[in-house]
Amino acid sequence: MEDIGQTTEEEKSEKAVMEEAKSDVISKKKDTKVRWYHKRWVRFTAGFLAVIMLIFTIAYALLRSKYTSLYSDLSGSEDTLKDMSKANSGHIANKDEYEFLMKYTGLLDQLEAGENKKAIETARNIIDSEGDIALKSAVEELLCQLYYTEEMYKDAISTSTHIIASNKNPGSIPYYVRGMSEIQLEEYPKASEDLKQALALGSFDEESVYLQLAISSYSDKQFEDSVLYSEKYLEIPKKVEENDPDKNKINGQFISNDNLCRYIAAVSYMNREDFDKSKGYLDQLIESKEDSELYYYRGVDNMALENYEAAADDFSKAKEMGKDDTEVCYDLGICLLSTGNVSEGIDELYDVIEKNDRPELTTASKNILTAIIQEQ
User: Fold this and answer.
1) Long-range contact list for 229-234, CB < 8 A, 24+ apart?
2) What is the structure's pLDDT at 110?
3) Dihedral over alpha carbons 40, 46, 48, 54 (to 10 degrees)
4) Which of 128, 136, 155, 214 qualifies as a cystine partner to 229, CB 3.0-4.6 A?
């Protein structure tokens, strides 16, 4: 028969828990700044928050509405990245590069004058009549570039494909032009393969290929590759004029190619859950140009790293700069609660409920507030 005075292992465990709770209460009395989620009454809520944060930290960085800032357009609009690709497509062949085509003075004059549509017709006629295989191939190579310049992307792909199929050593240009055209048609996996082939054949402009590969792989959500090629681009020393912030004007704003690649690397690392590296690139971007979207992203990184005070500062800054949407209110509310600023955190969650434009966040906010109110 079991001795009444004997303490079972279960009872010992319960006693240990009670002693721990007692110690916790004493500790809280000594430290009034104890984090809110350390309180025993909200342990379930803390667990709930952990799940919510895990689910939404990355999702909301990728699935959200378009805003007015350049960086939100870059992440939310394929057209913007296609514009960046087009702006950095390289230059069309000119007279100096095609001196061996001097017999076609009319074509060269049209190129020099920028009369690309006329040059396309002239090139077609030459291809139909030229018997010299080398000259014919050179004109075809020029033609595929002209098609791309005039946004005739299917024709550019068709001509590039013909060059590749009919030449043992087609060189890098037809692969490059075909890859660039495929970016514009949003055929990103094909674009990446062609651009990699252009790189392997020794592209005439390795820097441009790295930039285009960063864009195509990022657009295809191949984040390991987008990190690789954006960092490859950043490793190449640039001349001052090539890294001029005024080089590219997209959506009324200027952005350097270096900053484009830093942005791609930051968001790609975020998707790979390497938040430290993502934050490092965002630090550089914010130092170069403050933007509400950049502060929001850095807040997401800090939140994932459990740097809640820094995250709250970033989200607050994003709001000050005009990003007052549901996601930032929710994330700011979570971070404020996590740093003991309960009243302010509750206000942010009430804002989420009032906005009521993200059902999953509205529900999450209600559940958190219910848990807090029930205890109070």
Assistant:
1) 230/261, 230/262, 230/264, 230/265, 230/268, 231/261, 231/265, 233/207, 233/257, 233/258, 233/261, 234/258, 234/261, 234/262, 234/265
2) 85
3) -160
4) 214
User: What gap in Å lies between CA 148 and CA 138, rounded to an integer?
Assistant: 16
- SS3 for 164-182 is HHHCCCCCCHHHHHHHHHH
- Fold that domain 91-204 belongs to in CATH: 1.25.40
Radius of gyration of the chain (CA): 29
> Residues of the chain whose pLDDT is less than 70?
1-78, 91-101, 203-204, 239-255, 375-376
Query: What pLDDT is attached to residue 104?
Result: 82
Q: Half-sphere exposure (CA, 13 Å, Cβ side) for 369?
A: 19
Tokens of 361: 């966040």
**Dihedral sign for Cα atoms in the order 315, 319, 323, 329:** positive
Contact 182, 158 (CB under 8 A): no
Closest CA to 242 of 264, 218, 261, 229: 261
8 Å CB contact between 58 and 278:
no
Question: What's the pLDDT at 186?
Answer: 93
Q: Are 216 and 194 in contact (CB under 8 A)?
A: no
Burial of 143 (0-12, 13-18, 19+ CB in 10 A): buried
How confident is the model over 25-36, as pLDDT tens digits? 334 333 433 333
Residue 69: DSSP 8-state: S
Using the structure block, give the residue that is written with the tokens 């790295």: 210
Give the single-character DSSP code of 227.
H
Which residue do the tokens 């996996």 mark? 189
pTM above 0.90, yes or no: no
- Using the 8-state DSSP alphabet, how is residue 101 labeled? G
